[in-house]
Design brief:
The complex is a heterodimer of chains A (352) and B (373). In chain A, 73% of the residues lie in helices and 6% in strands. Chain A has 352 residues and is mainly alpha-helical. Chain A has a two-stranded antiparallel sheet. In chain B, helix 9 crosses helix 11 (246-272). The chains are: A mainly alpha (352), B mainly alpha (373). At the A-B interface, helix 6, helix 12 and helix 14 of A face helix 6, helix 12, helix 14 and helix 15 of B.
């Protein structure tokens, strides 16, 4: 522990004396300003729809599961890895929970446990393969992605809505946000609401933010991602840390999958398709570096919001086809990747 | 009995002779795909020997065509083989894989249809010669390959993440090129490239794949491409000190990948004379990566064996066709393939190999194997 203190104490002034702000803060700053700029532009050019609080809360409602998935992705990316199985894992969790609820007479609690179990199992297997057998993360999670995709159709090949009473009651629960709301066309006051998933997502994000900032495990993630060799020399168990990252990511995919299930209320093989890309995109936009060691849950949160806001803008521009959204998202990933790359090159240059 | 095996390398003299032949065989890179192929062949032979019958039929136009599962495998594997060639080079040079090939095939196919059909979605006559369409397709695919290459080589982004951009946007771009329409070509000559040329009973894609193999063999034999890609993949820094530009080599492999994608896309679109943007070449990137992994080339870059990769591609198609024959629904296929991938990468992981090696050498459980950390 004393060693770690000395290192952090020695590091901070060096960063400051270089005259710049640290990479984490710079990327976070870019993200937040992009989000605010985008939202202001949307309000200015696309009318008052974006001024209603409910529009903002709807973005949260739609993307509660994405926030959770992206948080897991950020943690994995901070350790220098990647997990592309989370999207199809979400679909698998949805389908399994749905089948369990409707065809096997399970309760909401058991289906939640099932969801967490599936996520945890994926996390453990993938984490073991990556951390202890030292196989490339991308290959392992690519296989995981395809495995989950195939398993989803094996569990059930068609889409169906869940009829379970308790589940539907939970799905319909709305939590009204005090002090927020808008007046509709008839002149009645409509309070703004969020779904349960949003609460779960926000609590998860806050917990993970604390984990990354103040716990030993959280700091180990950064250390391993920043420089594996130095982390090893500091006495950090690199393999265990990596394993924990994938385990957390799998568990979060389980939670995210259940939240997604709670939002859509059905099981389908095509659910959450491309969610892994959105999660990666959100993390990248949120300032998490692909090379590891740099990232922030707060940034990821804003990354999800930026991504969904731009999707909303695209669809309210009348370009409703799914392909325009895809192209915009890809362009955004590209832009932020290049920004990161430039930041990294600048850093390398200042080192020399 | 002289042991004139295909490995001309002399075994280390201190080895015991009985063990050396077996270990030399199993250590050869081409061993894994051949073994996998043999397992599949034996499995099919036991399950249903009629799997291997080939018959000469006549198609609806009255031309002789060969049919049978083996021909299907050879035919359908063509695109995969061509992609595996590009994927092997990309893997060797950049230590990562191009996951955008499926989406890029959609773009290439869409370009072919756009050039041939113009704005008319049901053309009576082709608007341009087929060769022009093919060349434009090559050009566009190479441009997209170059885009990936620039991101990987010059911006130093991890290959799989850089190609993620095209993976996300590719099929959308393909739809956009044709205004989201699905043109159908009625001209029969266009179908020759994906099906049969009248009078020749072997499917045309097989010939195209063979031509590609010959071309890449010649390129590897007569140019330094193979040597340079391997040296960049093994150690980019020292190859730079030796006067090779690693960034350019990486870039050029992605452009070659683009060319392979163009050929594969052209075959794909010629098979059906039309295109479905969201389905065409779906999950083919997984198969192509699997082919390289099966071929035993390190997925983290460096040395590669093109023959093994090509053989790997045929094995994958063999597996797919076998699974289809046993009525596995196509949407459940990925699960089975994923299991195969995991098994392969686990077996080829250095940690596992080391342990297996120790286990095989000691063979006596009394001695506790002490690993080096």
């Amino acid at each position: 522990m004393p060693t770690a203190n000395i290192v952090t104490a020695g590091k901070t002034p060096r960063l400051k004396s270089r005259g710049g702000i640290s990479d984490t803060n710079l990327l976070l700053l870019i993200t937040i300003s992009v989000f605010i700029a985008m939202y202001i532009c949307a309000i200015l050019f696309l009318g008052s729809g974006f001024l209603k609080p409910q529009t903002f809360f709807n973005i949260l409602n739609e993307n509660a599961s994405l926030i959770i998935l992206s948080c897991g992705m950020s943690i994995v990316m901070i350790t220098g890895g990647i997990d592309i199985s989370v999207g199809t894992l979400t679909a698998l969790v949805c389908m399994s929970s749905a089948v369990h609820l409707d065809y096997q007479g399970g309760s909401v609690l058991t289906s939640l446990l099932l969801a967490l179990g599936i996520g945890l199992a994926f996390g453990i297997v993938q984490g073991f393969l990556i951390a202890y057998l030292e196989i490339q993360p991308f290959i392992v999670t690519l296989a995981g992605m395809f495995f989950a995709k195939g398993m989803t159709t094996i569990v059930n090949a068609t889409q169906f809505n869940v009829e379970n009473e308790a589940f539907r009651a939970l799905k319909a629960t709305r939590l009204y946000v005090p002090g927020m709301g808008s007046v509709n066309k008839l002149g009645a006051y409509v309070p703004a609401y969020v779904e349960i998933g949003v609460v779960v997502a926000v609590v998860t994000a806050i917990l993970l933010f604390c984990l990354l900032r103040w716990t030993r495990l959280g700091r180990n993630f950064y250390a391993v991602g920043g420089n594996t060799q130095s982390a090893n020399m500091l006495g950090i168990n690199v393999k265990r840390t990596k394993f924990m990252a994938y385990l957390l990511c799998g568990l979060l995919a389980g939670i995210g999958g259940f939240v997604y299930f709670l939002h859509v209320g059905s099981g389908s093989p095509s659910h959450a398709s491309g969610a892994e890309m959105n999660a990666i995109a959100s993390s990248i936009i949120g300032g998490t570096m692909l090379t590891g060691g740099v990232g922030n849950i707060a940034g990821t949160f804003f990354g999800v919001l930026s991504l969904s806001t731009i999707k909303n803008i695209v669809s309210s521009l009348g370009l409703d086809e799914a392909w325009w959204t895809n192209i915009t998202v890809a362009a955004m990933i590209c832009l932020f990747l290049v920004i990161q790359s430039v930041v990294l090159l600048r850093k390398n240059k200042s080192k020399q | 009995m002289t042991t004139s095996t295909k490995t001309p390398i002399q075994a280390p003299p201190q080895r015991v002779k009985t063990g050396s032949l077996l270990s030399r065989l199993t250590r050869h890179q081409i061993f894994i795909p051949i073994a996998a192929l043999l397992i599949l062949v034996v499995f099919n032979l036991i399950a249903d020997p009629s799997f291997f019958t080939i018959s000469l039929d006549h198609n609806s136009a009255g031309n002789p065509v060969l049919s049978g599962y083996l021909i299907t495998i050879l035919d359908n594997a063509s695109e995969l083989v061509i992609l595996a060639i590009g994927m092997t080079l990309v893997t060797a040079a950049s230590g990562g894989q191009d996951i955008s090939v499926g989406a890029a095939i959609a773009i290439g196919g869409s370009v072919v249809l756009r050039v041939l059909c113009g704005t008319d979605s049901r053309p009576e006559v082709l608007h341009a010669p087929i060769i022009v369409a093919f060349l434009v397709c090559c050009l566009v695919s190479m441009l997209f390959g170059a885009f990936n290459g620039v991101l990987v080589a010059y911006f130093k982004i991890q290959p799989m993440v850089a190609t993620l951009i095209l993976f996300t946007a590719g099929r959308s771009i393909a739809a956009w090129i044709n205004n989201n329409e699905l043109p159908i070509i009625s001209d029969a000559t266009f179908g020759y490239f994906g099906n049969f040329i009248p009078g020749i009973p072997i499917p045309t894609p097989v010939f195209i794949a063979v031509v590609c193999m010959i071309v890449i063999a010649a390129v590897l034999k007569f140019t330094n491409l193979g040597l340079y890609t391997q040296s960049v993949g093994i150690n980019a820094h020292s190859s730079r000190l030796n006067g090779i530009d690693p960034a350019f080599i990486k870039f050029i492999t992605y452009v070659i990948m683009g060319l392979c994608v163009a050929v594969a896309g052209f075959i794909k679109v010629s098979r059906f004379s039309t295109i479905n943007y969201s389905v065409v070449a779906k999950d083919i990137e997984m198969d192509a990566i699997l082919a390289v992994a099966l071929g035993g080339s390190a997925l983290s870059g460096g040395k590669f064996n093109m023959t093994a990769s090509i053989l790997g591609a045929y094995v994958i198609q063999f597996l797919t066709t076998t699974l289809f024959k046993f009525n596995v629904v196509s949407s459940a296929l990925p699960a089975y393939k994923a299991v195969v991938v995991i098994l392969l990468v686990v077996l080829s992981a250095p940690v596992v190999r080391e342990r297996l090696g120790i286990l095989a050498r000691r063979f006596s459980p009394a001695k506790p194997a002490k690993e080096v950390g």
